[in-house]
Amino acid sequence: MSPRPAAAVSASEEVPPVGWRAELHLHCERRPGPSGPRTVLAHKHQLGPLTLQRAFHPEGAPCHLYPLHPPGGVVGGDVLDVRLDIAAGAHALATTPGAAKFYRSAGDWAHQAQVLAVAPGGVLEWLPQPAILFPGAQVASRTEIQLRGNARFLGWEVLALGRPVIGERFTAGSLDAALRVSRDGRALLADRLRLCDAADLVRPGGLRGRAVSGTFIATGAEQADLDAAVAVCSDAPGTLTGVSRLDDLLVARALADTTEPVQRVFCALWAALRPRLLGLAPAPPRIWAT
């Protein structure tokens, strides 16, 4: 097993070019339109096997984005670098067409960096499908949510260790996953999950033997929003859940044996909180129905 990396890195940092290097940088702006202002994809940079075919507007002003990774999986030595920049007043919703898969490695680490930057008055909804780590995968992942001013964020990350639906467990491999939320450079949330052996999966202070873990984040929350989230999570069979609020940052955690219960409760949280925090009815991305 190769040594644990000091931290997850972006494609702009020094990573040995062992596998595929892929970059996708998207910049969204609010611009006038025939029926009023709406968010458009103003700039796209892509390199290697990461792409975005087009932006959609199924609910009018917000822009829906479906980033694609055509190879369908990540192997040791691959480097993925995703950046979303949401300009002032713009509103984007990003999701993925399927689960991200990290395959068994012969020794090299796979690196993934996701930087989600939202300018004042901007909104980003980040609703990706789960990331699945196959046994033997070695993954370093970093997600940075960078908010400025009164920028708002609503979204989640779900991680499946192994393929629990077929009884497969993450009995070998390593994970170093970081999640950080900041506003104007001040950290609001800093998570780090490190797994390097099977015993890490069952520690009482960690995953408690559950194969699937998820974190849901919402900004701009008040006490009534926390109460609404608690009500949703209290009716979430098949999951261990917890919800907390620090200032206006609401964080919900979920643990389960399979991905479906976590996805179900997070979708319910999003449906309950989107009208409250963004003033918009839930509009599930069309790709979820395919």
Automatic annotation (TrEMBL):
Signal peptide residues on this chain, from the entry's feature table: none
Coiled-coil portions: none
InterPro entries for this protein: UreD
Main location: cytoplasm
Subcellular location(s) per record: Cytoplasm
Keyword flag Phosphoprotein: no
Keyword Ion transport annotated: no
Keywords on record: Chaperone, Cytoplasm, Nickel insertion
Recorded superkingdom: Bacteria
PANTHER family assigned: UREASE ACCESSORY PROTEIN D
Family: Belongs to the UreD family.
Function: Required for maturation of urease via the functional incorporation of the urease nickel metallocenter.
Subunit structure: UreD, UreF and UreG form a complex that acts as a GTP-hydrolysis-dependent molecular chaperone, activating the urease apoprotein by helping to assemble the nickel containing metallocenter of UreC. The UreE protein probably delivers the nickel.
Protein name, per record: Urease accessory protein UreD
Source species: Thiohalocapsa halophila
Species classification: Bacteria, Pseudomonadati, Pseudomonadota, Gammaproteobacteria, Chromatiales
